[in-house]
């Protein structure tokens, strides 16, 4: 029972507006080839805002397209309905998307905002999916636009979950700046995504989220759900395993939870060589993004040393993520020495070694960021001596020279690199010859004395 009786004059206005809304709401805006769903809990019907969803990622795709941003993020609470493929009646055939359906998905009329985030800030935003203590939900899964993928360790401590982020296959640079789009609620730090509120150069595009979706359908006509996961849980144990050791990779978030096609197996490979495969458990885990789990165990290959990249992939759905790992490095059979402990960038260093296998080809590398400086072949007695040039672009600071055997084992020596010659205090750093400067000073002094004598002679004549 209403609290007050209807006012006929007002009711007639409402009825007329509803008739017009029904007509406008039935207008076709586009088509879909399958359901675009929100994530679901294990009961199969309740929404799970902690799960990755096809519609969350699709909305992010639309917003990235609409704004021209590099990345778009969508909060799950801003999506209020699915886009369903099945017909709702004679006037709504299978796959048809009406204006009413699009409006029901995003009913808040938020505008889209762009802002600049550093790679480090983007990582912080993704970490904030794990909500603060006392929040109404422990985890909120952001929809992310296509091209952005990341891995996370669900067992890690708060603030340390995100293990890698790539954009279009390239690792995110923590110091670089990226143009990010989000709706006005999320961009203001809504749902405890506080880092977004700190974004630089924030601009409200004036574009409304609903209209952006209508525009997307006008331009692209048909949407299909992307069944590849854009975030995958990965835990590698033990850390720092050496060649020959057994390693286990526990995976999660390999499947969606709303009845979409699910993968059945996952694989892990290194340099194109498959190391292990395992079946995927499709059981839904409530309130999280852990649906689709697998555990793979393999032996670290004999030639896998130092920083490596594992590739995790699934069948059927096309999920692929790169997982950075570091394996222990075996000590080389020989030792090396440098003729100097400090050198200016652009200068050369003589590397000598002994105890290596006769005739073995060795690779010489400069680190932190690995740069190959050259190769050398050990003599019959296992020794070598060679000069290598330190690239002029090398940053000043502590570095390492590594001599790497064919089996990946290596010998190392510390090297300090100073600024390239000609920069700042290079004279003191490089010990440059001071004789030319002394000769110049003497010449200037002699010239000055000559001028004094000349002036005195002219004065004497007067």
UniProtKB/TrEMBL annotation:
It comes from the Bacteria. Keywords: Cell wall, Hydrolase, Membrane, Nucleotide-binding, Peptidoglycan-anchor, Secreted, Signal, Transmembrane, Transmembrane helix. The chain crosses the membrane at residues 435-454. NCBIfam families: LPXTG_anchor. This is Gram-positive cocci surface proteins LPxTG domain-containing protein. Coiled coil: none annotated. Residues 427-462 form the Gram-positive cocci surface proteins LPxTG domain. It comes from Microbacterium suwonense. The keyword Membrane applies. Belongs to the 5'-nucleotidase family. PANTHER family: 5'-NUCLEOTIDASE, 5'-NUCLEOTIDASE-RELATED.
């Amino acid at each position: 029972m209403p609290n007050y009786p209807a006012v006929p004059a007002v009711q007639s206005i409402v009825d007329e507006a509803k008739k017009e809304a029904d007509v406008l709401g039935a207008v076709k805006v586009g088509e879909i080839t399958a359901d675009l769903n929100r994530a679901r809990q294990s009961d199969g019907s309740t929404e799970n805002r902690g799960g990755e969803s096809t519609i969350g990622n699709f909305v992010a795709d639309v917003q990235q397209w609409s704004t021209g941003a590099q990345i778009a993020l969508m909060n799950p609470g801003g999506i209020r309905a699915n886009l369903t493929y099945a017909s709702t009646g004679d006037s709504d055939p299978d796959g048809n998307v009406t204006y009413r359906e699009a409006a029901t998905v995003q009913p808040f009329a938020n505008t889209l905002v762009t802002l600049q985030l550093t790679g480090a800030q983007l990582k912080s935003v993704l970490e904030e999916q794990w909500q603060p203590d006392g929040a109404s939900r422990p985890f909120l899964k952001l929809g992310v636009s296509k091209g952005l993928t990341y891995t996370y360790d669900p067992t890690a401590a708060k603030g340390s979950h995100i293990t890698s982020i790539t954009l279009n296959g390239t690792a995110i640079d923590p110091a670089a700046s990226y143009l990010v789009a989000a709706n006005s609620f999320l961009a203001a730090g809504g749902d405890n995504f506080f880092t977004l509120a700190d974004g630089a150069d924030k601009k409200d595009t004036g574009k409304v989220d609903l209209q952006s979706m209508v525009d997307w359908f006008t331009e692209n006509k048909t949407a299909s759900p992307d069944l590849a996961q854009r975030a995958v849980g990965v835990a590698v144990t033990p850390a720092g395993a050496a060649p020959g050791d057994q390693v286990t990779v526990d995976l999660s978030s390999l499947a969606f939870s709303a009845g979409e096609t699910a993968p059945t197996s996952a694989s892990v490979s290194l340099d194109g060589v498959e190391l292990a495969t395992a079946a995927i458990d499709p059981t839904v885990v409530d309130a999280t993004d852990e649906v689709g789990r697998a555990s793979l165990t393999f032996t670290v290959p004999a030639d896998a040393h130092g920083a490596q990249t594992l590739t995790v992939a699934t069948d059927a759905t096309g999920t692929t993520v790169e997982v950075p790992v570091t394996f222990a490095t075996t000590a080389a059979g020989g030792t090396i020495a440098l003729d100097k402990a400090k050198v200016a960038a652009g200068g050369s260093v003589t590397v000598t070694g002994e105890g290596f296998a006769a005739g073995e080809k060795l690779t010489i590398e400069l680190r932190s960021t690995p740069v190959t400086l050259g190769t050398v072949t050990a003599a019959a007695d296992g020794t070598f001596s060679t000069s290598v040039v330190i690239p002029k672009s090398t940053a000043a600071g502590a570095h390492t020279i590594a001599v790497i055997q064919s089996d990946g084992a290596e010998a190392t020596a510390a090297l300090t690199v100073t600024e390239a010659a000609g920069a700042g205090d290079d004279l003191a750093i490089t010990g440059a010859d001071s004789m030319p400067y002394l000769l110049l000073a003497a010449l200037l002094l002699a010239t000055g004395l000559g001028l004094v004598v000349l002036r005195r002679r002219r004065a004497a004549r007067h």
